Amino acid sequence: MGAIRYHHHDANPFFATVKARSEAWMKATGRTRYGGWRIYLKSAFWLGTYFGLYSLLLFGLVPFPYSLLVWAGFGFAMLLISLNIGHDASHGSFSSNSKVNAVFSYVFELIGTSSYLWGIMHNKAHHGFVNLHVNDVAIQTEPMLRLSPDAPLYSWHRWQHLYAFPLYSISTLFWVLLKDFKFISKQKIGPFKGAPHPWYQYVLLVGTKLIYFGYIIVLPVMFSGASLWEILLGFLIMHLTMGITLGLTFQTTHAVEETCDPKWAKAGEIDNTWAVHVLESTSDFKTDSKLLNFLYGGLNSHVAHHIYPNISHVHYPGISKIIKEVAEELDLVYIENPNMWAAALSHIQYLKQLGDPKTARMGSMPAVSPIHNT
Question: Taking the model in full, what pTM does it have?
Answer without folding.
Answer: 0.91
